[in-house]
Design goal:
With about 550 residues, this protein is α/β, with parallel strands linked by helices. It contains 24 helices and 10 strands. About 70% of the residues are buried. Belongs to the cytochrome P450 family.
Amino acid sequence: MPGVIPLIAQAIWYWNDILFSAIRLRRGTKLPPGYMGLPFLGETLTFLLYFKILRRPDDFINSKKRRYGDGVGMFRSHLFGSPTIITCAPGSNKFILQNCKDFHIRWPVPELIGLKSVVNVEGKQHERLRRFIINAVNQRNSLQKIAAAVQPPIVAALHSWAEKGIINALQEIKKEENIEMKKNMKGDYITMEEISKLKYTANVIEETIRMANVSPMVHRVATKDIYYKGLIPLLAQAIWYWNDILFSAIHLWRGTKLPPGYMGLPFFGETLTFLLYFKILRRPDDFIISKKRRYGDGVGMFRSHLFGSPTIITCAPGSNKFILQNCKDFHIRWPVPELIGLKSVVNVEGKQHERLRSFIINAVNQPNSLQKIAAAVQPPIVAALHSWAEKGIINALQETKKVTFENICKMFVSMDPQPLTESIDKRKLTKIFKEELAKRKLIHKKNEISSDESCDIMDGLMRLKDEEGKQLGDDEVVDNIVSLVLAGYVSTSLAIMWALYFISKSPHVFQKLKSPAKSGAFQGFGGGPRICAGNMLARLQLSVMLHHLSLKYK
């Protein structure tokens, strides 16, 4: 009897691994290295520890790497009740992110963003929304307007910070290009053409986004068995309550192979470990690192089980690119629709996605749009810098949130953001934007505004039509506005905050930024057909902030 207890304990400890390994053994397939945790719980608690408590998500990945090695950059795990594969190599990440056909967005994204958001919809609906967003915020013309609009708040904020205290180490940016540019400036604010010439500042921005890790992970659910470098990165079947033994047996029977990893406990998988790293420890990278340590990088993929589903985690550029560029096989599912909206450009697919994406790109990501945006954002940024300088010591995160949210609200919905700034969430924004949409429809019905006049992104979405001349429904308009506002506000404010932090704390690092980043090694805005449609808008606001900060403040 004394010898039985250790065996039982060991069986419980490796329950998920044994279960899914047996399934894969039957199929003749191989899982990535990793550990799938206890029955039900998996690695969920460890995940939450790193992510929510320690606030060091990178350590979750690093711990995997130390234990299993880099290998293919994939590790098996079990998170939130599902077997999961964690990928952390550029190759495997690229593989997944570019493979939208086989890897879809599922829970929790729809719950967090919205079922009809561009983040969650697929096919033509996603293409339409994404095109709209890119045209609205990521084209040169849109960025010109945004650059002009965001600079006054940024400049004012920088001025306010300067008065609150000392912000260190902007000399490299200043010496490199901004002082010389100021000699040729015709006014107080820079244009989109001038922003495009800030090559050194652009490298600072890319490194800031990389180091800040604003979005530490991307979640995809495969629609079928996908092979990557001899491994199956994600299992498409909705097997919510089985882990390593179960999935290993299934793939053994199929003659296929899973990436290495650990799929955790039945139902829970590695969900608790995942939440531990992401929500408690705040160190999501450690969740991936731990898999790499244990299983090696390999192809940058690991099997796991998260939120009730078998999961493949990819963390290599190659695998990430493969998934992101393969929208046909990789779809967006829960939780994206719930988070962003079912009808958002993030969530829709096919022609609907193409139409929305084209509109967004034309609105914010084209040269003409960027010119107008560059002119519009600078006064608020300049005013914010001035205000910060007068205050002395500031809360960088809160102050950057205010100025970026002000710019986003004015650009997208022409609204004063002050009542919303203190507490922002999807439900509150949805309610407010539904009320705003109802007001605009009433005004349009009374012919107080020309139907051909384009005022802001919301008006553009209201007039957007498909091939049959059908306009977007109210839910589609609201879901896309909510997803655009949340995405533009959160990512930009965090990037600016981290830029200020890294510039202040690590001035010596920026000497390394003169060398461009290795192609494919970093994907700060995702990849493939669903790459962030407004990425130029985020870069533009950060460029404006760094430009004025480096020239006028210490």
